[in-house]
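so i finally got all the pieces together for this one. its two components total, 863 residues if u count the protein bits. some of the lines might not be protein, just check the labels. i wanna see the whole assembly predicted at once instead of chain by chain like last time, that was a mess tbh
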Amino acid sequence: MNWLQRQIRPEQIRELSLLALIVVAVVFFGSMIDGYYSFRTFNRISSSVAIITVVAVGQTLVVLTRNIDLSVGSIVGFTAYFVGTLIAHHKGLNPFLAVAISIALGAALGVVNGLLVAWGRVPAVVVTLGTLAIYRGVLVDLSGAKTVTTDSLPQWLVNLPTLNVLPIGALDVRALFAAALVIVIIFQFGVTYLSFARRFYAIGSNPEAAQLIGLPMKGIILLAFVISGALAGLAGFMTLARYGNITVEAGRGLELNVVAAVVVGGVNVFGGSGRVTGAMLGAIMIGTLEQSLFRLGISEFWRDALLGLLILLAVASDSVILQRLRLLWARTELKFVQPVEAGAPRS
Amino acid sequence: MTASEGAAEAKTAGAPILEIRGVGKRFDATQALADVSLTLQAGEIHALLGENGAGKSTLIKIVTGVHQPDRGQILLAGRPITIRSAAEAQRLGIAAIYQEPLLFPDLNVAENIFISHQDRGVVVDWRRMFQDAESILAELGVALDVRNPASGLTLAAQQTVEIAKAISMNVRVLIMDEPTASLSAHEAQELFKIVGDLKKQGVAILFVSHRMEEVFEIADRVTVFRDGQLISTRPRAEATPQRAIADMVGRAVDLTRARASVARDELLLSVDHLSRQGVFEDVSFQLHRGEVLGFAGLIGAGRTDVGLALFGIEPATSGSISLAGKPVSVRSPRDGMRLGIAYVSEDRRQLGLVLSMSIFANITLPALRRYLNRFGLIRTGMERQTAETFRKRLAIRTPSIELDVAKLSGGNQQKVMLSKWLNTNPSILILDEPTRGVDVGSKAEVHTIISELASEGIGVIVISSDLPEVLALSDRVLVMREGRQMAILDRADADQESVMTAAMGQRSHQPAQGLQ
């Protein structure tokens, strides 16, 4: 048991059990739906998962600092629509520039959230609930409720979702999913190995202590919201590429999927603990459920209700099961041993 | 510069590492610290003693940059410094360890040790961090899995991590604010070994504790504070627990004349083996009509918790309470009020008064049921009548009873609190720190009111950290220490020394013999 405890942490047990649940879900749906095990199903689920994942990575950083960003759905819609309009009018726009504009636009909207939360001292739930409505409202007003249509978009963008970057046998890893994977890897490494990124954990874990040792809390919180906004902006671009037709409704309700992914993925809603990879597993779970229940002909409302139930279950299991596991693991006893002589004075 | 080099330098120069010169600090009406001068030598353990509110915490907060002094100077290794924040204090090599360590529960031990370091590079080298953490802990003579999150650590382990953190920051001045308060005797001994090692390495240690034994076990010098002033600094050889206690309580006793006893024989309240798990245990006493029972002890001794249990806010888990011989169960404040018990909280702002409401509304709040007419509406005229009665009776100084309570002075707020609970017609009144933060004039008035209430036949329990106050008011004094009842002293046996001795857990000195 001791050896096992050294190798596996409670958080990893949680991720492994989530993985097992995903397998169970896939087997279940496979028995319910004819032709479920097909590349079409995989592609459908993977592009849905890709968008949720990218936004969930940003949300993870925000939740780690003991905040929440509910405006992500609106940011996705906002950038999808405006970048779509921009591309429709300037067909020669460089693809990379288009992506950069999406990210910058999302980041700018994130700055507003971050400033209000960190310097305005307004709770994040209130701020982002407000901006959720405001961003959407501005979008509807500025767009005049028009629609971006696929035929107005250049061919490279229309082809992007089916672009196959890594063929594994007959299985495609398409551009959107590959992008999501790259982002997960970058951010998982970032929060593990960058010393400033460890501060996301610190200020969520014990804000009082963080204040006392002089961590720049406002800056860190702002950064979390900016990253969340930027990734939502990127997801906006991905949404544009995936659907082509963008109405003012784009990305609406996405925040529920994203928060569910993050919470189901084991990120503590009270901040301080959680992993980017966990959020991705959460997104895979949510994406699989969404698409499969859709195939089963379950209505959107029941799907949302199920997501809500999942969030509650995840939080409940966190406070019951994970806490127990942690106690079992981390009952670290202090042992007194003979002190090692400090040879040279420490520097 | 490393800690040891700094220490060596200071030693050869003979200059103190930290010097506090004429520091003063005032909070509103309270002079928390007045003209305090103190030195800390390298490799010295300097103990700070004093009753609650004597100014120790204020001094610590000034040295660690939490508060800024109004006057005076702080010198570090001979150079004047200004400490603007806790982070700056750490950079200067001044670290503090509190009773409750401030760690990040989700971060692992190693990360907690190095969290304040700006110099460990942009990329975390986990392997090196774990190794460095392990080697610091090994120097301290403790073994801990540095990969485990801090959330699973015992309090003693957490404190060790705090010390390791301080060492990693090249600490020159280490302040320990009651570090042993929640440790077992064994853990405390191990902590002292570590402290002894730090001392050998030339760290100056300022050590605050309420445990006399340990102060005289490890301290090189003992400084006593009282009422925001430094009373004495003595080398351990010249200091004795008796002398230190005398310095701590030292006020001229005749300023507070003892109240004439009006206690009757009629038994009001009888408490047997009352305990609340993990908070206090085995408290037994009796209270008679017209009797004033004082609860003495240090903050955290469990006095307030007994009061809360009697009133039902935090009910007892075992033991029994009888009123006039009949066993009763007090599970909630509603029970307490129904049984004629009133509890006047020590925390006027949080538990006692609704600051944004008028004086009269505050006074009638707990007994509002009496002021309803037959339609269930409040008869405000009657409310005002009651409030006016109390205003005269307790001499609440206010232009009007319509005024918000927030606008009153501390003493008058205290009187509104008293009115509020007296209006419930209690037979037992529990007063928790009735004169804290109240000026001397109002204090005397509150004492007079307590005497009057006793002569009306109310049984009064006075919980107070102000020892002369307890002695002046009480017919008997119950002394608590760390959740245990240490003694019940009759008025004849109770003096400052005997009470302090019991509160400090010093049993060597027998007050009864001392009187003869």
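The two ends of chain B are 59 Å apart (CA to CA).
DSSP finds 19 helices and 21 strands in chain B.
anyway lmk what u think
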